[in-house]
Amino acid sequence: MSKNKSSESVKVVVRCRPLNRKEESNGPAGGIIQMDVRLGQVILRNPRAPVSEPQKTFTFDAVYDANSKQRDLYDESVRPLIDSVLAGINGTIFAYGQTGTGKTYTMQGAWMDPEKRGVIPNAFDHIFTHISRSQSDKQYLVRASYLEIYLEEVRDLLDPNHGNARALELRESPESGVYVRDLTSCVCKSIKEIEEVMNMGNQARAVGATDMNEHSSRSHALFLITVECSQPGPDGRKHIRVGRLNLVDLAGSERQAKTGVQGERLKEAAKINLSLSALGNVISALADGRSSHVPYRDSKLTRLLQDSLGGNAKTVMVATLGPASQHYDETLTTLRYANRAKNIQNQPRVNEDPKDALLREFQREIARLRAQLNHRKWRSKQKKEQVDGEGWEQDGDEETEGEEEEGVEKEAEEYVKLEEQRLEMETEAIRGDQFMLAEEKQKLLGEKERMMGDLRKEQEATEQLTAKYKAMESKLLVGGKNIIDHTNEQQKMLEMKRHEIAEQSRSEREIQQQVLVQDEETLELRETFTSLQQEVEAKTKKLKKLYAKLQCIKAEIKDVNDEHVRSRQELEQTQNELTRELKFKYLIIENFIPPEEKNKIMNRLTFDPEEDQWKFQPLVPAESKSSQMKKRPTSAVGYKRPISQYARVAIAMGAHSRYRAENIMFLELDMTPPNTASLAVAEPNQSHSLDNSPTKDRGVRKSRSWCQTPKSITSSSSNVSLAACHTATPMAAQ
Ligand code: ADP
Ligand code: MG
């Protein structure tokens, strides 16, 4: 899978925007940045330092000053990267810098003005022009996705349901590295289509910007383009190369003011700082080269850029600066970041025949549809032969593939037309036949009708298949469509020349930089002194130069230390605030949440190493959900609760006195009048017979229970009730 194992460093270019009106009106201080475009150097002046303090100089792969054109940056620094992507190598361009320094301007620019179009629209032009000019044996598939990372959550900007969509998960596979699960990807066939995709995403982002304060400067936006190219190799088989391009517009790099920030805002600030400081840590760890651990997993952003920083990709970092003196500290931090990133080594390689290439699937599907269509064609041919009763004039096998496809539709149509005519004629003939019985006529007409219906269905199916086949095929872009276009030829020449010029100026700059370094080293060797006086002068000059350099380096050390202390203080402050929040939450848990509830929650917590965060297990495990849920009793269908057969009959009977209630027990008052007898004074010797003597002989008798067999029933109402009760008992017991 890998070719070209060589490693190359991240290319870092710096761009400074012009002073804006507000900054100009702020005073005569002017810019603090000077740029030597020829040498690729940025010279930074500290507005607070005395004039004697030496200025800071940084050297980069290229620098673009306030007068630079979008096109210059693209041709010189981005074009080679996009060419690599088209050849199947992963590429990343990211803009880094303080808010308002021109990250979005560099990446997107003003779309309507050809002079001000940024890296992204120029890359669209580049990709599709390259495809239209490539050889006709190449097939391309271009896909685009757009996402943003806001508050450490990955959100799909192409999801129509963006506002309510849940955050997406990051996954890792050995084939394609870190990727976003379930991310929408749109197949694009032209510049217009990919621009529409971009606009759709930008609108989703814009909605967020109005909903949330300063959203755009707080979220990172990633536009991803995958270019798959299939080309026959020397072995005669088609090989697929896949290049992924990440176009990244980061959130502003300035530190969020932390004083007085609490709750959600604190979390937001901490998270934005987190991903940017994680990016800084990753860059430092990679640039250092000694640390074995690179903290990619510390944030979503660094995980997504894992391949772009120290992995399988070519990377260009555009650091953007503002020239205003009030932003000196931020500008210096950006330059330091950029300077560090220069040392990162990547190992880009050509991604050949990866398993997850979508182009391969598309090619298979197209082949399958074509086979189906050919089969239909063959069938219609057979039928036509049967109808005509003669042979096909031309043998289909001799046709070329292109002719075959075109012919398919025509032949099917022709066959259907002929068949329709034939059926209509036959129907007419049947209608006109006066000797046929009406019944038979009807039967034959019905049959013809059915045949006609079948024919139409078949035609519809073929049309659908053809449409599907064409839609599928149109998704693939074939090279060589514009190759004969004369104006294109000229444009191509112009672009080549531009490319050459860009290459030349780049190599010139490299040579200049090398010469500068060598000059200093060899100065000593070349110098010969004619007199002692001359030697003293020369050496004094050199001493001064070296002393200045020493001072520079000392100042640099001090600066780095100061910055280190500052960022440490900031981190400590964030840590303190977070600890306070944590303590507060613990306090709530301990005082207001019962321990058993807390334990229940704790038991449900599991750590997801993929997502790098704690998650809740569902209360009922997913697989046993159906088995654990009790089924609703069937008797209850249509009723509020299970009811007996008796009750159902009772409902059906309405207000029938026999079914007045479904209760088994009879709870009506017993209206039987009690039997009374005058109390005779019992004789003492008769007291033993209290139990066995009949009660009617003595005083008040106990009232009769409903379940006792009535001995003498006088009331007619009790008679009815008891009868009902007797019937109810066996029924209800069912
Ligand atoms: P960021 O995305 O870094 O926050 P923007 O790209 O939105 O900053 O730029 C802020 C403003 O500066 C915009 O109005 C933009 O037009 C202007 N600007 C930035 N860079 C340049 C440049 N190189 N030339 C002219 N105008 C620029
Ligand atoms: Mg921006």
Protein described:
By secondary structure, the protein is of the alpha+beta class. Helix content is 48%, strand content 14%. It has 18 helices and 19 strands. Strands 2, 6, 7, 8, 9, 12, 13, 14, 15 and 17 form a ten-stranded mixed beta sheet that branches. The protein has a three-stranded antiparallel beta sheet with strand order 3-4-5, covered by helices on one side. A hairpin with a 3-residue loop joins strand 10 and strand 11. The longest helix is centred in the C-terminal third of the chain and has 61 residues, at 532-592. It is flat, with a radius of gyration of 44 Å. Residues 390-401 and 686-734 have low confidence and may be disordered. Residues 529-581 form a coiled coil. It is found in: Cytoplasm, Cytoskeleton.
Topology:
Layout: E1 8-9, E2 11-16, H1 21-25, E3 33-36, E4 41-44, E5 56-59, E6 62-64, H2 70-86, E7 91-97, H3 103-107, H4 119-133, E8 139-150, E9 153-156, E10 170-173, E11 177-180, E12 186-187, H5 191-211, H6 215-218, E13 220-232, E14 238-249, H7 263-288, H8 300-304, E15 314-321, H9 328-341, E16 345-346, H10 358-388, H11 401-432, H12 438-475, E17 477-478, H13 486-526, H14 532-592, H15 595-604, E18 605-608, E19 613-616, H16 625-628, H17 645-653, H18 716-732
Parallel strand pairs: 2-6, 2-15, 7-14, 7-15
Antiparallel strand pairs: 1-16, 3-4, 4-5, 8-9, 8-12, 8-13, 8-17, 10-11, 13-14, 18-19
Helix pairs in contact: 2-4, 2-13, 10-11, 10-12, 11-12
The chain binds adenosine-5'-diphosphate and magnesium ion.
